[in-house]
Specification:
By secondary structure, the chain is α+β, with helices and mostly antiparallel strands. It has one domain: 2-Layer Sandwich (Alpha-Beta Plaits), CATH 3.30.70.3250. Helix content is 30%, strand content 37%. It contains 3 helices and 7 strands; from the N terminus they run βαββαββαββ. The protein has a 5-stranded antiparallel beta sheet with strand order 2-3-1-5-4. α1 runs antiparallel to α2.
Length: 132
């Protein structure tokens, strides 16, 4: 089996997201809900072209009865809008209501972690920092 040259490989983007949940969320259940959301919104053809892969999924902390998780999803660089829409359309995981917020998008895992996740704490981004 031969490997593709880097110039022939598809470009990727890394989406860093944050989940606020009423209870504990398991990685497998979340991934299943993400795929179901992609399939129901766009169908099998678009969902498979997203080349979705869950890189990280960690529990950060808890406050006022809510659990906070952060994660990184890899996708094709032209499919970030579809993946963001699929993330936004997930109402619950394992019977627990959740809210998902995208922290940012990066071209490399290293930059995604440096910009949006620092030493186990999520970096707060302000509207003014994003230029909007």
């Amino acid at each position: 089996m031969t490997r593709l040259l880097p110039s022939l490989r598809g470009k990727k983007r890394y989406i860093v997201f944050e989940i606020l949940s009423e209870g504990e969320v398991e990685k497998g259940e979340f991934l299943k809900e993400l795929w179901n959301s992609l399939y129901s919104l766009f169908g099998e053809t678009v969902a498979s072209s997203c080349k979705l892969w869950l890189i990280d999924f960690d529990r950060e902390n808890a406050f006022e009865g809510f659990e906070v998780y952060t994660g990184i999803v890899r996708c094709a660089h032209k499919k970030t809008d579809e993946v963001r829409a699929a993330l936004a359309c997930i109402p619950s995981v394992g019977g627990k209501r959740i809210s998902i917020r995208v922290r940012g998008i990066s071209g490399t895992i290293k930059a995604a972690r440096r910009k949006f996740i620092k030493h186990g704490a999520v970096v707060a981004t302000r509207v003014a920092d994003r230029g909007t």
